[in-house]
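Thread: Newbie trying to understand structure tokens

Hi all, I'm a second-year student working on a class project, and my supervisor (Dr. K.) asked me to get a predicted structure for one chain before our next meeting. I've only ever worked with sequences, so writing a 3D structure as a token string is new to me. If someone could post the tokens and maybe explain what I'm looking at, I'd be very grateful. Here's the chain:
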Amino acid sequence: MSPDESPYVADWLRIAEKDWERAAWLLDQHDSGLAGFCLQQAVEKFLKAFLISQGWELRRTHDLEALLDDVSAYETSLVSFRDVCQRITAFYFAERYPLIMETGITEENVRASLEQVRALVEWLRINAVSKEP
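---
Reply by user tm_fold:
Sure, no problem. This is what the structure looks like when written as tokens:
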């Protein structure tokens, strides 16, 4: 973990919640690109919060599928979220990097992805046990 990054689960959850709320707000503002980006950031931080709570050493990645693989070692049923994690990871890259082709990110597919990943986020919220004093 970089010395600049918090080792505390509560810090990761706090920022994840902010990103989750931002994604919903941005959808209401019809900014699907930035809403998708914030959704990816929220899910990434929820996944990392859970993993850190299990003693996982933080690594820099934005690949939700790879993080889900690590989380699935603790709860195998979560692999059912693989497809939505792949789709949400693509939102991150579409917003952060210039692409040659149109991404086709729409308000409808970001909103659907948010709803599809909601159960995973709830599981992570409950199971990211804070070990801070």
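A couple of things are worth pointing out once you decode it. Residues 9-127 form a domain with the Four Helix Bundle (Hemerythrin (Met), subunit A) fold (CATH 1.20.120.330). The first helix runs from residue 9 to 28. Feel free to ask follow-ups in this thread.
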